[in-house]
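Reopening this one. Same input as before:
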Amino acid sequence: MLPPFLVSSNCSLASFSSTITQFVVKDGLHNDPSLNELDLSSFECLQEIDIGNGCFQSVVSVRIVSLKQLVRVTIGENCFNGKEKPQKCKSWAFQLKSCPKLLEMKIGNDSFCNYSICQIEDMPSLALITIGDDMSELGCFRYSSLKLMGCVLSRVIMTRYASITFSFDREKRVLSLYACRF
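Same output, byte for byte:
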């Protein structure tokens, strides 16, 4: 088994081996304003993503797609919030798709707070989604609707201040949450 890859400095993401099994980022890294996108889809062996607090604050597009071995995603507080670009949030997107072994996803307070798209699709093993907690004023995904497709969830945990409208299409097995305020 390969050792985890621990990101402890602002090294180039392009320098990572595509065979890493764990992607662990320490607190406060990768906040360069020129870093706008994080696409982890090329890391085919990835089993775990663990991002600390205050990371990737200028990133406005996150793609985690077709990772067949991925089991867990944990993102800390105050990450991916577009801190330097709050006026351009209409196309900011978080995409988590086609990860058949993914069991749980946890997102900390105030992460993705300015994103307008949260898309989670084709996750047959996903059992738990935790997004923020009830102590945050900004919240997560405050400008977006959450779209869950092809997911069988046993629990969804969101803040108590959430304002959510549910829509479920039985034929397509699509659960959509509209007007979400997390």
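So the earlier flakiness isn't reproducible anymore. For the record, Confidence is low (pLDDT under 50) at residues 160-170, 176-182.
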